[in-house]
Every structure is written in C-alpha cells, then in structure tokens.
C-alpha cells in the first residue's frame, strides 16, 4: 500500500507511505489516495489529517514511473488528471483537512498543501515548485491554487526562478498556517485535529465551503449563500446546544 488510511476518535488519517521515493506519487498511489478520500466522506470522520511517512512529505510526481510507461505523455496526462480530481475532492470534503509536512514539499507536493485547510510545517521544511528543473509545467491544480494563496507575482517567482522557500517564508507568504519545531510537528497536528474533531462539525464544514467557494462566485451570490447557510445552521441541534450554552453564561 502506498497510502494508509485509519480512523480514531473521529480523526481520519491519510498517510502517503512511499518514503523510499520521498512519497512521490504514481498512478497506483493516486488511486489509493482517491479511495482514502472516499473513506473520509463517512459521517464518523469529523476531521482529516494528511501526512507523509519518512523524512520528506512529498517530492511531487514519480518521474521514473512515467518515464517507464509505454506512452509517457499519456501516462502523465492520466496521473495529473486523476491526482487533481482526488485532491479537489479532498478540498471539497465538508470537514476540516489538516496537513502536517516535513522535509521537502516539491512539485505536486504543493498541491497537497494547497488543498488542505490548515497546514503545519516542520521548521526544517523546504518548499519548491521544481517543475522547470526537469523541463515540465505545473499540474494537479497548482497553477490555479498557488496564485490564490500567495499572489500572482509570488507564484510566478516560485514557478519561473526555482526559488526555494523555508518554512518561515512559506508561512509569511500564506502558503502554510504555522511552523512547529521538527520534533513537535506530530503532536501539534494531533492537537489541532482533536480540537477540530471536538468542534461543531456541520458549522465548520459549511464555513469551509463558503470560504473556498467565494473565489468562484460574485459577491452578491456569496452573500446570498451566507444568509441561506446561517439561517439553516441556526435550526440545527448542534447550534441550538451551543447557543444555549453561550446565553447561559
């Protein structure tokens, strides 16, 4: 198995598990990822944690896999398309996705980060586009998501110059949420996941949806969606309990 899936206490964990190739992704890995995302849709999963085994989070696409394919172009097209679809489904889950990254995040590895809602990076982590270094172009939604996260000029700088960002720079550029000491990464990710798992699941899921969808609709449509969503939220048992607790203070 290249991707591990497990659930404990409402926390679902997706682990990229190809440490021998820095968790680079090939077609079997992408298909296992898609299956894990499907499993994460279950109602008992309240938050999803995304991590990578070994020293590096994800080195991007597995170059050797598509060079070994009978038709490299066809293979790479399928890899890019299926990976983007799986990651788009991950980002659309109606529950928070927390990523913990370490070592290196390169190429398509950035797509995993960009599709997570909260990202904690180990202090020693390096971030790099890497595509141009082997004469290739961005894939897996990176061209769409990166400018929205860091701005067009910064995205172009990363893509065209090959610049490497430190974890602190990635945080300052809004590519990641926070930076933790290397030895504290796993504990911090677990702490965040457990806090979110104990939160109002429906409200968090709808909040995520409203924010993520706002780039693709007009302000008027977004406002109408907000109004309809909060009106529906106030009728839920979850909100009623929390409102009663708040007013009883």
UniProtKB/TrEMBL annotation:
One GO molecular function term of this record is: isomerase activity
What's its top-level EC category?
isomerase
EC number annotated for this UniProt entry: 5.3.3.18
Q: By its UniProt entry, which Pfam families does this protein fall under?
A: ECH_1
Q: Which UniProt keywords apply?
A: Isomerase
Entry's PROSITE patterns?
Answer: ENOYL_COA_HYDRATASE
Q: By its UniProt entry, which InterPro entries does this protein fall under?
A: ClpP/crotonase-like_dom_sf, Enoyl-CoA_hyd/isom_CS, Enoyl-CoA_hydra/iso
Family membership: Belongs to the enoyl-CoA hydratase/isomerase family.
Q: What is this protein called?
A: 2-(1,2-epoxy-1,2-dihydrophenyl)acetyl-CoA isomerase
Taxonomy, top ranks, is: Bacteria, Bacillati, Actinomycetota, Actinomycetes, Pseudonocardiales
């Amino acid at each position: 198995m290249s991707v591990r899936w497990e659930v404990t206490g409402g926390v679902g964990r997706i682990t990229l598990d190809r440490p021998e190739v820095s968790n680079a992704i090939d077609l079997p890995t992408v298909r296992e990822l898609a299956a894990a995302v499907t499993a994460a849709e279950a109602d008992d999963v309240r938050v999803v944690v995304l991590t990578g085994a070994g020293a590096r989070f994800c080195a991007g696409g597995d170059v050797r896999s598509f060079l070994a394919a009978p038709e490299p172009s066809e293979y790479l097209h399928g890899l890019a398309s299926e990976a983007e679809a799986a990651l788009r489904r991950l980002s659309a889950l109606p529950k928070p996705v927390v990523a913990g990254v370490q070592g290196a995040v390169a190429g398509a590895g950035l797509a995993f980060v960009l599709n997570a809602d909260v990202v904690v990076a180990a202090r020693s982590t390096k971030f790099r586009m890497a595509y141009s270094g082997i004469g290739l172009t961005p894939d897996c939604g990176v061209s769409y998501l990166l400018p929205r996260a860091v701005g067009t000029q910064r995205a172009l700088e990363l893509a065209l110059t090959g610049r490497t960002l430190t974890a602190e720079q990635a945080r300052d550029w809004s590519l990641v949420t926070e930076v933790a000491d290397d030895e504290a990464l796993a504990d911090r990710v677990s702490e965040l996941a457990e806090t979110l798992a104990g939160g109002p699941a429906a409200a968090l899921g709808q909040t995520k949806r409203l924010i993520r969808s706002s780039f693709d609709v007009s302000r008027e449509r977004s406002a109408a969606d907000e109004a309809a969503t909060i009106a529906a939220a106030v009728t839920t048992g979850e909100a009623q309990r929390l409102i009663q607790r708040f007013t009883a203070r």
